């Protein structure tokens, strides 16, 4: 199939496929006139790239993954990506907790909600009274500004 047909099949612009080719992600055959011709393997590669991008992987990582069949290498590539994703999921869960707390709060003023107050207290940490001592009676820690 032509580059236009492949792009249309996946809802992509043709320049995206050209870019992926320039990065070594796609390797279309050329016909006698030099035009790109894509086959079933290319359909699979494009689908793989799209699924990988939806998983949050960048094109360089996708290229590295497609260049290896070694399980150990694949694990070395994917382990840091899994850690980044776990971190993003944790941050999203905290965001959802804040939003749901606001939705479920019966107070007119959200600053009066116990959930809001807990989240703020966790973020602020121990309060430092005006006279320069933390709630535990110790002077505040030296700051490295």
From TrEMBL:
Top-rank lineage group of the source organism: Bacteria
All copies of domain HTH merR-type, residue ranges: 1-68
Protein name (record): MerR family transcriptional regulator
Protein source organism: Streptomyces smyrnaeus
Pfam families: MerR_1
SUPFAM superfamilies recorded: Putative DNA-binding domain
First and last residue of the signal peptide: none
InterPro entries cross-referenced by the UniProt entry: DNA-bd_dom_put_sf, MerR-type_HTH_dom, MerR_fam
SMART domains: HTH_MERR (SM00422)
UniProt keyword list: DNA-binding
